[in-house]
Design goal:
This protein has one domain (about 5-125). About 55% of the residues lie in helices and about 0% in strands. The protein has helices spanning about 5-10, 60-80, 85-115, 120-135. α2 runs antiparallel to α3. The chain is elongated. It binds zinc ion.
Length: about 140
């Protein structure tokens, strides 16, 4: 068994090492706490802040995600209404930036940490063994 899929781990903001623990403490749209990260994984003990300013690179990932979102929105508006004026474009894009801010913030950090820390399937199989051992001993 290959374990959880990479895309599911990245978009679900799971630990890059075991793909099971959560990177963040609360839900995406808990607006006061959407950026609060766990210090380490509750499953495999991987630290989520390997070095100071680790997530500086995630800003560039977030920038790339926003550019992709802008382009998709621009072409979507062009297809739906080819005669749309600048106010419509600006209104939709500003609304979209505000609504997707928590998602882009979290997914960009998740992509960044998944680029830097490799998945270790042994941890996945070890945790599965320990849970099956625990359940069999009960
Ligand atoms: Zn983990």
């Amino acid at each position: 068994m290959s374990g959880p899929l990479l895309i599911k781990s990245v978009t679900g903001c799971h630990c890059p090492r075991c793909r099971q623990g959560n990177l963040f403490r609360s839900s995406t749209y808990n607006l006061k706490r959407f950026s609060d990260m766990n210090e380490k994984c509750e499953v495999c003990d991987q630290t989520f802040m390997p070095e100071p300013s680790f997530y500086m690179g995630a800003m560039f990932v977030g920038y790339a995600l926003q550019i992709g979102l802008f382009l998709a929105t621009y072409f979507g508006i062009r297809i739906i209404n080819p005669n749309a004026n600048l106010e419509i474009y600006m209104g939709i894009m500003i609304t979209l930036v505000i609504l997707t801010l928590p998602i882009v913030y979290r997914v960009s950090r998740s992509i960044w940490i998944h680029l830097m820390i490799k998945y270790q399937q042994q941890i996945d199989s070890l945790t599965n063994q320990s849970t099956t051992n625990e359940s069999s001993s009960i």
